[in-house]
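User: I'm writing a short report section on ligand binding and want a predicted complex to refer to. Could you take this sequence and 2'-O-acetyl adenosine-5-diphosphoribose and write out the structure as tokens? A short remark afterwards would be nice.
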Amino acid sequence: MNGLYTSINKSMRNIVISTGAGISAESGVPTFRDADGLWTKYDPMVVSHIDGWNASPSKVIEFKNELRRQFAALDPQPNAAHLALTRLQNEWTDGTVSIITQNIDGLHAKAGSVALEIHGTAIKKFCMKCNDITGYDADIDVNDPCVCGEVSSIRPLTVMFGEMPHHLDKVEALLNDCHIFVAIGTSLNVRPASMFASIALSRGADTWLINKDVPQITFEYNHTIYGNASVEVPRWVDMMLAS
Ligand code: OAD
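Assistant: Sure. The structure tokens for the complex follow:
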């Protein structure tokens, strides 16, 4: 593996990190498309798609409430991969280190990192009428009233398929000025995150993938590392900080 690292150029500065469910797998948070992933048990078209929401908000809310309860019982903690990225954000002196995550588990923040949560967050809900954001610390009922007086307007602050992810203007700016890009723990099935590497590559960035399994398409990555995030991410961070 050391041979891979020799191509790093000291003049590279800004690092953009894009994380997916795999980075939190070793914290006990289920992924979506692995053998025991959430989408083997639930139909995402019903419980996580805007069309499913429009057809039956109660089915979506039931699923989100169940996840909320599982998450509260699990109380997941950051693993060595999240903590290594925090170290990189704190110790990298050659430019910025930005984390973009598809994850809604809040583990980057819990690890002390700053991250753009493009698919929203599992710990908040909001009113579609007045946009009031509150903690999602008890189950939602589809008939719950908001403080603004509207009824049946409260939903989780997570992005569903068919909806626009959050912070895309900031993501675009980061990718345009990115010298080193790394995707971690993602099957690269979901846009726009699956396209970030090709955008970064087209801007001249060196691109890395750290993942347990080999995704179907990896041609936009200059370097690939396959293994568990809790092992490979700290190793990659050590290498970056020493380069
Ligand atoms: P997936 O479940 O599609 O992929 C998880 C990836 O993590 C797989 O490629 C695994 O190989 C890898 N993985 C599993 N354990 C790992 C470990 N210990 N270390 C490193 N890698 C590991 O999850 P995402 O690609 O993040 O969106 O899914 C993207 C989006 O699809 C989610 O944000 C969610 C989902 O539907 C919405 O619901 C809108």
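A remark for your report: The first helix runs from residue 2 to 5. The pocket of 2'-O-acetyl adenosine-5-diphosphoribose is lined by residues 20-22, 25-26, 31-34, 37, 44, 48, 102, 119, 159, 161, 185-187, 189-190, 211-213, 215, 228-229 (CB under 6 Å).
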